[in-house]
Write a structure and sequence with these properties.
The chain is α/β, with parallel strands linked by helices and about 290 residues long. The protein has two domains: about 5-75 and about 235-270, HUPs (Rossmann fold); about 80-180, Alpha-Beta Complex (Glutamyl-tRNA Synthetase, domain 3), CATH 3.90.800.10. Helix content is about 35%, strand content about 15%. The protein is built from eleven helices and ten strands. Helix 6 crosses helix 8 and helix 7 crosses helix 8 (about 215-225). The structure holds glutamic acid. Glutamic acid binds near residues 43 and 193. Belongs to the class-I aminoacyl-tRNA synthetase family. Keywords: Aminoacyl-tRNA synthetase, ATP-binding, Ligase, Metal-binding, Nucleotide-binding, Protein biosynthesis, Zinc. It holds the Pfam family tRNA-synt_1c.
């Protein structure tokens, strides 16, 4: 028993596929081998993409794989006031600004290369005057963006610890001023995820390498909101036949269709890369490693 707590945090926008199975099993195996805790979180803030039947299907997929979890299932759609309070706090610190840009405005204005999360916001609305902001807020839809440079001036330089890569110097500026309050939802993935990792007592975030770059700004949000800093393990991604990361549209790799075709949970494990060996990892010092 070493206090290890991790989580699996799917969005209920379809059935789970082999990539989810690998992610869920990796964290579960570590938690169980270390006498730690394994939590489940349903990331369902985007009600246009998420459906209760997908949540039920994902839970069925996890149970079929033999995965169990500790404590209640946390549903992000039930926690919107908690996220709103955090956004208010950042706003009171002067670290947010309203952004009126549409997707096409941003695409037209952005000269910067596309980052892992798409086009990097060029900062257009950061420069609006207080008067123009107030006037446009009264009549236009807007998102709240984090002024990342101003936020970094508050926190100073930050690092995060990655299981594979060692100590990483956080560089949230490279992702631009991210949205912390989406136009139609009021909140965003980044805010919800850091608040909930803390609320669920997560010590180790186990997730795919597609979210490695998101960690830079999530570390910044943790520091701003006074949340504890977990260790990160960004595991390899499972690729489809086209060499691209599996997505929910890749029905052939869904656990439900593999199961319908006669696959057992043991067959699924055979299809996946080896899971971590917690015995070999015991005693590994995640604090070591130079800042690259
Ligand atoms: N909900 C995210 C997804 O399904 C995962 C978020 C995370 O692990 O931080 O990709």
């Amino acid at each position: 028993m070493d206090g290890f707590v991790t989580r699996f945090a799917p969005s209920p926008s379809g059935r789970l596929h082999l990539g989810h199975a690998f992610s869920a099993l990796t964290g579960w195996k570590l938690a169980r081998a270390r006498g730690g805790q394994y939590r489940l979180r349903i990331e369902d803030i985007d009600r246009t993409r998420c459906r209760p039947e997908h949540e039920a299907g994902e839970i069925e997929d996890l149970r079929w794989l033999g995965i169990d979890w500790d404590g209640p299932v946390l549903r992000q759609s039930e926690r919107l006031p908690v996220y709103a309070a955090a956004l208010d706090r950042l706003r009171a610190m002067g670290l947010e600004y309203p952004c009126f840009c549409t997707r096409s405005d941003i695409a037209a204005a952005a000269r910067a290369p596309h980052g892992s999360e798409g086009i990097i916001y060029p900062g257009t609305c950061r420069h609006l005057s207080a008067g123009e902001r107030a006037e446009r807020m009264a009549s236009e839809a807007f998102a709240w963006r984090l002024d990342v440079a101003a936020a970094l001036a508050v926190t100073g330089p930050l690092t995060w610890r990655d299981h594979e890569a060692g100590l990483i110097a956080a560089d949230p500026l490279k992702g631009g001023d991210i949205v912390v309050g989406r136009k139609e939802l009021g909140v965003s993935y980044h805010i919800a995820v850091v608040i909930d990792d803390a609320a669920q007592g997560v010590t180790d975030v186990v997730r795919g390498r597609d979210l490695f770059e998101a960690t830079h700004v999530q570390r910044l949000l943790q520091a701003l909101l006074g949340l504890p800093e977990p260790v990160y393990r960004h595991h390899v991604l499972i690729l489809g036949p086209d060499g691209r990361r599996l997505a929910k549209r890749d029905g052939a790799a869904s656990l439900a269709s593999l199961r319908a075709g006669g696959a057992t949970p043991a067959d699924i494990r055979e299809l996946l890369p080896p899971l971590p060996d917690p015995v070999r990892e015991r005693g590994r010092n995640y604090n070591s490693g130079a800042i690259p």
